[in-house]
Structures are given as structure tokens and as C-alpha cells.
Amino acid sequence: MPKYSSGVEDYLKAILHISGKGGYARTKDIAEELKVKPPSVTEMVVKMAKDKLVDYEKYGGVRLTRKGEKLAKLIKERQEVIESLFELMLVPGRTAKKDSCKLEHQLSPETLSNLKLFLKFLKSKGHYEKLKKDFKKTKEGYK
After folding, report:
1. pLDDT in tens, 62-76
2. Around 111, how many Cα atoms within 13 Å sit in the side-chain half-sphere?
3. Is residue 112 within 8 Å of 125, Cβ to Cβ?
4. φ, ψ dihedrals at 97, nearest 5°
5. How many whole angstroms from its chain centre is CA 54?
6. Which domains, and CATH codes, for the chain?
7. Is residue 22 over pLDDT 90?
8. Measured between alpha carbons, how far is 127 from 134 in angstroms, rounded to an integer?
9. 66-88 and 6-22 are packed helices; what angle lies between their axes, rounded to 10 degrees?
10. For the chain, is the Cβ count within 10 Å smaller at the N or the C terminus?
């Protein structure tokens, strides 16, 4: 899959989140979600439509294409994997979400794949919650 900018990836993720509620996303809603101005959204979705990531009609909303939806779900999964690691490390929720959003664009597919497998291993063997509890005790011991 081609590499897209972190901006495009953030738009895809936002459109996936918003369109999950009604099948499409309005540019106004995308602007609010990403804290950008509506003209910036229009400019980006026009670009994304050229790359066949979204279907966009002026005043008609934005819908992910199959290609865009597949990529958006992959991006969302990457962020969730990183958030899961941060959760294990007891990083507060808001910080974990913000930082995982930054990291999701930077880590290689190999690293993310291994991280996903590692977390799956920890959860399947029942180690995840135990490690989290043990780390909490350790963290409190350093205060």
C-alpha cells in the first residue's frame, strides 16, 4: 500500500469515525474533528478523491471508497495497538491517545506487526493484566 502523509491518514481516520454514525461525513464535521477550517477540509478531500480514497461531491458529503476504508481501518488498528501498549505502561488515556496518534505514522510496518503480535501473546497467556498490576506497584514504588 502506498505511503500517505500523516495528514491524509488523520483525515481517513476522522472520516471513518464520523461516517460510522451515518455512512458519510460532512466537511463541517471533519473540520470540527480535526480542528481545522472547512476550506482546508475541502482542499484535502478533493486531493483524496483524486487518489480514489474518498468519493466527494460538493455539498453532498464524503464517503470512503473501499481503498480508503481499508486504509482507514489499518490506521485505526495501528493507533489502537500503540494505545494498548501505553495502557499497559499506565499512560493516562488522553496522553496515550495523543501520543499514539503521533507514533502511528512513524513506526515501520514490521515494528507494528511485532508489537501487535507481542500484545496478542500477552493477552492470550493472561500476562497483560498481571504485568499491568505489577508495573503499577513498581511505578508507585518509585514515587
Report:
1. 999 999 999 999 999
2. 9
3. no
4. -65, -45
5. 17
6. 6-70 (1.10.10.10), 76-141 (1.10.60)
7. no
8. 10
9. 100
10. C
How does pLDDT run across 37-89, given as a tens digit for each residue? 999 999 999 999 999 999 998 888 999 999 999 999 999 999 999 999 999 89
**Chain center to CA of 49:** 20
Closest by CA to 41, choosing from 21, 55, 62, 20, is 62
Distance CA 12, CA 54 (A): 9
Contact (CB, 8 A) for 104 and 75: yes
What mean pLDDT is predicted for residues 3-27? Answer: 91
Left if phi > 0, otherwise alpha if psi is -120 to 50, otherwise beta: which for 52?
Answer: left
Q: How does strand 61-64 pair with strand 54-57?
A: antiparallel
pTM of the model: 0.84
Residue 99's pLDDT is: 93
